[in-house]
UniProtKB/TrEMBL annotation:
Pfam families: WD40_CDC20-Fz. Keywords: Cell cycle, Cell division, Mitosis, Repeat, WD repeat. This is Fizzy-related protein homolog. Residues 39-56 have a biased composition (Polar residues). Transmembrane segments: none annotated. It comes from Tigriopus californicus. Residues 220-511 form the CDC20/Fizzy WD40 domain.
Length: 534
């Protein structure tokens, strides 16, 4: 009886839904009505030919086509074959709750803040926007994650404010949890919805961000300014006068009156200017020539007072030390001479470079001379020895950019050429190398700020940019662009606030990059003998 009832139920289901054989016959009859026989080529080309598949990939979907297919063979099946998997349960109930991990969702804000922080290091003009983002990010962490951020002191604190608070992912714990922020004891008369930590954060004084203009405040034409990496044709005196070597002439530009005068012309001697350098007092300017001569001119009298010989090739680097003048030449020699008695006092010859000397700088205490050459070497000389006291060979290209730090005794910075692209720092007191940074382009010049621990670098191939760095963090403060050629020449104003850059595009551009005011800590120092009159 049970057997007959099961067959009767199966027969009723077949009447309602149809048998598999009848369903197959019905599909074949619909295909025949659509056109073509089951074995015809037209039906196969419509559904399975490579040409049909290629058209389907390149054309729009069928609903937008003017002639959509009617064949069931071209349409997808009504039911896709799938195998149901049963969920298996064990005899123990293990909770799988992960909880509300806000630090995971808050990670999006964290990444955005870090990107903004990196952007702040490169673009100082958006400091207010980035500071607002940091404050907002810290407020969210205080209110949601229970962080204790109350103040921004420096960049490290900002990075700490953006780091996620570690939260244990364990469901069970054996110690009491930290009290929530909403249960924090506050004044009963307080109407603010935020915690006391966030209130202190909002009341914390904001550090004023220094904005560096990306546009030069003055541009001067400099026709015939040579595009030569090994020359030094621009210098700024302590009396606020700029000297520029243009072809065979030396021109003086007064920053106070904007008056331009021509100091000398080497055309009668069939010679050209290869370097210029001011004395410390600003009353004398030395001029190096292509034939190897060094001329010393009195600016006030517009008169040449000395012509120093000794080099057999062009003089591309000059450096003053009181009344002593050092000159570096393509003949690989460095000559030191006293301009007061050039014919009586013997000259001092420093031989160490294997190729042209292209960089010379005296230390602030006038005790050490740093020289860089096309042989990728950096030497440090003292006043008493004819041999270098330090020799650095880490650079992989010519070393022209040299600068002594006025804030850290014995700290020397140098930059390499196209194959090196690095700015390296050296401790000349111990002779040990310090940190370095890869700038990504040829380093042409370096100069330190007179009032802050910052330095500026100018670059050539391939970006032609001007970069301002913070030391010792080596954070990039600003990036200035405008020259179309390599920025080969650099000089700092006597007040230490502005710089002038020259390039092969025959322009001189003036930029405000450094802060003029000295720090309060330095001004109040009892060891500084020049802040008061005794």
């Amino acid at each position: 009886m049970a057997f007959s009832n099961r067959h009767a139920l199966d027969f009723q289901l077949r009447l309602l839904h149809g048998s598999p054989q009848s369903e197959l016959k019905r599909q074949r009859s619909q295909a025949l009505n659509a056109g073509g026989s089951p074995g015809s080529d037209s039906a196969m080309n419509m559904a399975g030919s490579p040409q049909a598949q290629q058209r389907n990939e390149n054309q729009k979907p069928w609903p937008n086509s003017p002639n959509p297919p009617n064949s069931l063979l071209a349409r997808s099946p009504l039911f896709s074959p799938s195998k149901k998997t049963r969920e298996r349960y064990s005899d123990r109930f293990i909770p799988a709750r992960a909880g509300n991990h806000w630090e995971t969702d808050f990670n999006l804000v964290q990444d955005r803040g870090l990107n903004s922080l990196r952007k702040t290091n490169r673009d100082a003009s958006e400091g207010s926007k980035d500071h607002s983002l940091l404050v907002y990010s810290s407020l969210l962490q205080n209110e949601i994650l229970g962080a204790s951020i109350e103040d921004f002191k420096d960049v490290s604190d900002e990075r700490r404010a953006l780091s996620p608070v570690p939260v244990s992912r364990n469901l069970f714990s054996y110690r009491s949890k930290r009290s929530a922020v909403i249960n924090e004891v506050t004044s009963p008369y307080s109407l603010t919805p935020i915690s006391s930590k966030s209130q202190k954060l909002l009341r914390s004084p904001r550090k004023a961000s220094r904005k560096i203009s990306k546009i030069p405040f003055k541009v001067l034409d400099a026709p015939e300014l040579q595009d030569d990496f090994y020359l030094n044709l621009v210098d700024w005196s302590s009396q606020n006068v700029l000297s520029v070597g243009l072809g065979p002439c030396v021109y003086l530009w007064s920053a106070c009156t904007s008056q331009v005068t021509r100091l000398c012309d080497l055309t009668p001697d069939n010679d050209t200017v290869t370097s210029v350098s001011w004395s410390e007092r600003g009353n004398l300017v030395s001029v190096g020539t292509h034939k190897g001569y060094v001329q010393v001119w009195d600016v006030a009298a517009s008169k040449k007072i000395n012509t120093l010989e000794g080099h057999t090739a062009r003089v591309g680097a000059l450096a003053w030390n009181g009344d002593m003048l050092s000159s570096g030449s393509r003949d690989r020699l460095i000559l030191q001479r006293d301009i007061r008695t050039p014919s009586v006092a013997p000259e001092k010859r420093l031989a160490g470079h294997r190729q042209e000397v292209c960089g010379l700088k005296w230390s602030p205490d006038n005790q050490y001379l740093a020289s860089g050459g096309n042989d990728n070497k950096l030497f440090v000389w003292n006043l008493s020895s004819d041999q270098p006291v330090h020799a650095y060979t880490e650079h992989k290209a010519a070393v022209k950019a040299i600068a002594w730090s006025p804030h850290h005794h014995g700290l020397l910075a140098s930059g390499g050429g196209t194959a090196d692209r690095c700015i390296r720092f050296w401790n000349t007191l111990t002779g040990q190398p310090m940190q370095s940074v890869d700038t990504g382009s040829q380093v042409c010049n370096l100069a330190w700020s007179k009032h802050a621990s910052e330095l500026v670098s100018t670059h050539g191939y391939s970006q032609n940019q001007i970069l301002v760095w913070k030391y010792p963090s080596l954070v990039q403060v600003a990036k200035l662009t405008g020259h179309n050629y390599r920025v080969l020449y650099l000089a700092v104003s006597p007040d230490g606030e502005a710089i002038v850059t020259g390039a092969g595009d025959e322009t001189l551009r003036f930029w405000n990059v450094f802060s003029k005011a000295r720090s309060q800590k330095e001004a109040k120092s009892a060891l500084n003998l020049f802040t008061s009159i005794r």
